[in-house]
Amino acid sequence: MSLRLTIVIMSAFGVISDAILIAFYPQFFEVRYGVTSPVHVGAYIAAISIAVMCTLPCWARVARRVETMHLVVYTQCIAGLLGAASAWADTVAGFWVLTMLMFMTKSSYLLMFPYLMRLERADTHSATIGLLSVVVHIGGIFGAMAGGLALQHFGPRTCLWMMAAGDFIQMGLCLYLIASGKVVRVLGTDAAAAAPAAAARRRTLSLVFRLSLLMLLFDFSAYLVRPFFSVYWEHITGMRSQMLTGLVFAIPGVVALVALLANHRAGDGRRLDHTLANLLLGAIGLLLQAAPSATLILLGRCLYGWSLFQVIVKLEVTLFKVSTPDAYARDFSIANGFQNLGVLLSSFGAGLVVSRFDIEVTFAIAAAGLLLTALVDRWTFGVDRRHAQPAAALAANPAGASHAS
């Protein structure tokens, strides 16, 4: 297997591992520990975001001294051991400690994304990001299906073993790449690129933070409905099949594949520029899901999935335009930190909203958040995008820095 294909497969297993329980934490805590508080579920998912948000920048700094692939071998091994150990946690507190340490160590696999982008040409970034986004969504489908099936027929402990298995598979793929000599070392190139990159970085760092704030708002809005969607679907439809619930939860993944094919047919990526239209479409999709109709919920999931894919790809393409190759890991960790803060706020907020109001209110708040994201995007990036050029070009042409996006 090529290095690129192996990294894509690694990403798939990482996503599947993360997605096994993400749709079923309310049911998981009830079955395993008898905990039914929606605030507790929201707080746990928020804590996952905190763990990743705090540790990924640390791993990015470590990756400046240790080759990324070698680092991931050790961290995924530790994550797998912690995940397996959590299957025997008899108390909620013990489960929290073990799994939070697990998420803190396994977050390093996210560095595979900027590592791959360093190896890709700038003109292929959009296609690569689109492919990885589909992998994330399709991985969510398999993860949700596998998680629902395992939880329903084999119990929560099996779900935790499956999550640990995903970490060990990632470790094994890293060892394969290292042993086969396919790993591309990147640390030796940093010193030569440091001087021009520093000049470009001073001019683009503010754009990275502006874009990261936009990602925070978008992620808060997009993921506010996630923690309790499975409970909502089963309540509205009366269908208690957790495998079916997992499939409905993962509909955006199928739509993401359709969107990737549509963008590929477009050829020039013009569809990715329709950020405003896609945000409005997402808001409509969220409002449709608040309707007490299975048909409208399914239609809303489709519109929501299309919007989610297109906007995520556009934001991430923009991130790598304003960054430079030697700073990809650092800027990605900054953006990912803001994204995880958005997910954190959405998870905690979802718990609070559901504990005081109906679940339908989360869809209305999320739709309003996407509309606000559209306004902020127009005000802060509307002009910049018309004059965008990659940050790598700014090092050679500092005069053009004011037009970067």
Identify the notable features of this structure and list them briefly.
405 residues; mainly alpha; Growth Hormone, Chain: A; globular; disordered C terminus
Q: For the record, what is the CATH homologous superfamily label?
A: MFS general substrate transporter like domains
Uncertain segments: 268-272, 386-405
**Would you identify the CATH architecture?**
Up-down Bundle
Q: What's the number of structural domains?
A: 1
Helix content: over 70%
Tally of alpha and pi helices: 17
CATH fold call: Growth Hormone, Chain: A
Helix and strand content put the structural class at mainly alpha
The major pleated sheet works out as:
none
- Could you report the average pLDDT, rounded to the nearest whole number? 81
* Gap from first CA to last CA: 35 Å
Overall shape: it is: globular
SSE arrangement, N to C = HHHHHHHHHHHHHHHHH
Hey, roughly how much beta strand do the residues contain?
A: under 5%
Number of strands: 0
Supply the CATH class. Mainly Alpha
Radius of gyration: 21 Å
Commentary on this structure:
With 405 residues, the chain is mainly α. The chain has a single domain (3-180, 193-403), classed as Up-down Bundle (Growth Hormone, Chain: A), CATH 1.20.1250. It is 78% helix and 0% strand. The protein is built from 17 helices and no strands. It has helices at 3-19, 25-33, 38-62, 68-86, 92-106, 112-119, 125-153, 156-180, 190-223, 229-237, 242-249, 251-266, 275-289, 294-322, 328-356, 360-381, 391-396. Helix 4 (68-86) packs antiparallel against helix 8. The longest helix is centred in the middle third of the chain and has 34 residues, at 190-223. It is globular, with a radius of gyration of 21 Å. The protein starts with a helix and ends in a 9-residue tail after the last helix.
